[in-house]
Amino acid sequence: MRIIAGGVAKAEVAEALRPLLRDEDTVVIGTDMDAAVQLKSGQADYYLGTCHTGAGASLGVLVGFLGSDKTHTFGRTVPSAQAVQDAVDAGNLAFGFALDQVQDVVPLLWAALDAKREG
């Protein structure tokens, strides 16, 4: 699985995600434009974007390129594991959350994404 971390706290997202990944998985730091192109072409699987609110700049470009049915924002709240699972199960490829929620949201998102591949 290839994940792109973007937004204000992109380095923190990548750092939080790396120890959770399997050997064959990668996380790279990129921009929302990079992510849009790579997700659309199949070169990346998911985008995790952060901004101050988790709803605006974290996903703006991705909503435009992928559509609102492929993007999900958790906003300023720490979602429950079920809410994260529901967002992943809905087919979203890009997820936005607030930069001060990285340590809480990243492990929840990874667990749901990893479980999805197991099918």
TrEMBL record:
InterPro entries: DUF2620 (IPR021238). This is DUF2620 family protein. It comes from Aeromicrobium camelliae. The lineage of its organism: Bacteria, Bacillati, Actinomycetota, Actinomycetes, Propionibacteriales.
